[in-house]
Design a protein that fits this description.
Blueprint (H helix, E strand, L loop, with lengths): L4 E6 L5 H16 L4 E6 L11 H9 L14 H5 L2 E4 L2 H14 L6 E4 L21 H20 L4 E5 L10 E2 L8 H5 L11 E3 L34 E2 L1 H10 L1
Family: Belongs to the low molecular weight phosphotyrosine protein phosphatase family.
Organism: Drosophila yakuba
GO molecular function: protein tyrosine phosphatase activity
């Protein structure tokens, strides 16, 4: 998976966006992804201040902390970040209007966090403010975390298993071949690090691609059994690491 730069944006940058920033950073650590994550606000209300005390309390309940100081969103953020993620629809609409006039670099995408719900369906995230009760912050935490997970999976993480000379797993198949060779051939096979023939793909029900599936997961299609970069596969993990990755999310 390629390196990304992601910015969460809300109105004041004291409640929702710093919470989302810390949650996403924690997911980055758990899954060994290397994304740059930050947060900002559309207004200057809290510039230079620490996030709201209720936001910090909820993060502490989950063993997390924030070193963030609130800042205002600027036009330069359109040029620097790959994804600008709005915490609610009001912020999303304002960002779209602002982007239409100031987004010179077309690779920057404006996203709505609540659109990344389970099963690809939109969800609802409370628009937090300092006047809201602690239970609202607690509810928003879990919804934000789920949406952050789905946002990661939407980037397509495919899991592959690399062959060992002593493997006896008949459920795996050779890339670019219709069926595995006989046992005698397996015993004498030594994988070449410079060839793709030593890579196995897991069955489709074990692999995760953010809800998107391509013909590369079909073992009957030998020509497409090894996905190329153009098909969206950006990261390869061994089977054990892949299972840890999914479990961490």
């Amino acid at each position: 998976m390629t390196f990304k730069k992601l910015l969460f944006v809300c109105m004041g940058n004291s409640c929702g966006s710093p919470m989302a920033e810390v949650i996403m950073q924690n997911l980055m650590v758990k899954t060994s992804l290397y994304w740059e994550v930050d947060s900002a606000g559309l207004r200057t209300w809290n510039t230079g201040r620490r996030p709201n005390k209720r936001c910090l309390q909820i993060l502490r309940e989950h063993g997390l902390r924030s070193d963030h100081f609130c800042r205002q969103f600027t036009v330069n953020d359109f040029l620097y970040f790959d994804y600008i993620v709005a915490m609610d629809e009001a912020v999303y609409k304002e960002l779209l209007l602002w982007a239409g006039e100031n987004r010179a670099d077309k690779h920057c995408q404006v996203l709505l966090l609540s659109s990344f719900g389970k099963n690809g369906l939109p969800t609802y995230i409370d628009s937090l403010s300092p006047t809201h009760k602690l239970k609202n912050f607690r509810s928003a935490y879990y919804r934000i975390k789920e949406c952050c997970k789905q946002l990661i999976l939407s980037q397509k993480v495919d899991i592959v298993k690399y062959e060992l000379p002593s493997t006896e797993d008949d459920d795996l198949y050779y890339s670019g071949k219709e069926k595995a060779p006989p046992e005698s051939a397996k015993a004498n096979h030594v994988p070449d690090a410079n060839q793709n023939s030593s890579i196995f793909l897991l069955p489709a029900d074990i692999r995760s691609s953010g809800g998107l599936r391509s013909s590369s997961t079909d073992p009957s299609n030998s020509k497409t059994s090894m996905p190329s970069c153009s098909q969206g596969v950006q990261r390869k993990l061994c089977q054990k690491c892949g299972q840890k990755f999914l479990a961490a999310l």
